[in-house]
Amino acid sequence: MSEARIIDGRALAAQYRKDIAGRVAALRGLVKTVRLDALLVDDGDSAARQYADSQRKTCEKLGIDYRLHTLPSSSGFDDIAGRVLLLNTMDTCQAIMVHMPMPEGVDAYEVQRRIDPDKDVEGVNPANIGNVVYGRSSLAPCTALATLRMIRSTGVELRGARCVVVGAGDVVGKPIAVLLMREEATVFSCNEYTEGVEELARSADVLVAAAGVPGLVKGDWIKPGAVVVDVGVNRVTQADGTTMTMGDVVFEEAKQVAGFISPVPGGVGPMTVAMLLRNVVAAAEGGASDL
């Protein structure tokens, strides 16, 4: 059997960025600015700051006005939630996201649920997650939407397919399970207490690894020819003290068995950013993002 075909998240994201740029240009032709307001509590977390800088550069290339609102690390819940509520009231602000992590003692859920659902481009407001569950149009959670789009790119028929999601987190595991149900797939959601998870994974036509456990899914967990999407992004310290990024799937083993597989890095990550910006444009257009 030949090696799996790579689901190239960077190449797919580039295709979506072309579409996004065209839609932004069309809106600007109507004298309408597309704007994303991002909130960052600057607690010295370099990863969050780097992500914000990367967002700004990408937005500039696509013609999106990126506004970063930086609050000091001493900010409390009232400061952060108050800024979100202010942005909700501004007609010039069409899209809102909040960078994580929040300062100690600040409940991220309570902040996120205050984002106007029509401006919630990360799809984290419970109202938008509820819309996904009930099958209504919505700004869907970006990573779950990215995962779905990557699966679709393989051409697999999801209706009736057996899909196994390893990991039941609020950000990816639960939303992607619901999105796959909406495709009329037969979905199994696994967590740390699931007995026989290896056998269940081995039965999957589509396997989504989103447990946040490096190297959890081995090659012998995979059904020959299956579609495997690795959502895990784990920083692992090696024997020589250096760190590397790896997914939840043992890639070298899995690619010998799977039909399609996404790499880490270069898979779900770039597509998640593309889906975020796609939601930004959808919010600016005044409608929900189609799934």
Descriptive notes:
The chain is built from ten helices and eleven strands. Helix content is 39%, strand content 17%. The protein has 291 residues and is α/β, with parallel strands linked by helices. The strands form three sheets. Strands 1-11-8-7-5-6 form a six-stranded parallel β-sheet. Strands 3-2-4 form a three-stranded parallel β-sheet, sandwiched between helices. The protein has a two-stranded antiparallel sheet with strand order 9-10. Strand 5, helix 7 and strand 6 form a beta-alpha-beta unit.
Q: How many domains?
A: 2
Gyration radius (Cα, Å) is 19 Å
Write the element-wise H/E pattern from the N-terminal end onward: EHEHEHEHHHEHEHEEEEHEH
Let me know the CATH homologous superfamily of the largest domain: NAD(P)-binding Rossmann-like Domain
Number of strands: 11
The pLDDT mean sits at 93
Overall helicity: 25-40%
Major sheet attributes: 6 strands, parallel
Enumerate how many helices there are, as a single number. Answer: 10
CATH-defined fold name of the largest domain: Rossmann fold
List keywords for this structure.
291 residues, alpha/beta, Rossmann fold, six-stranded parallel beta sheet, three-stranded parallel beta sheet, 10 helices, 11 strands
Question: What is the fold's blueprint, element by element?
Answer:
Elements: E1 5-6, H1 9-29, E2 35-42, H2 46-62, E3 65-72, H3 77-89, E4 95-98, H4 108-112, H5 126-133, H6 142-153, E5 162-166, H7 173-182, E6 186-190, H8 197-202, E7 206-209, E8 227-230, E9 234-237, E10 243-246, H9 251-254, E11 260-261, H10 268-285
Parallel strand pairs: 1-11, 2-3, 2-4, 5-6, 5-7, 7-8, 8-11
Antiparallel strand pairs: 9-10
Helix pairs in contact: 1-10, 6-7, 6-10
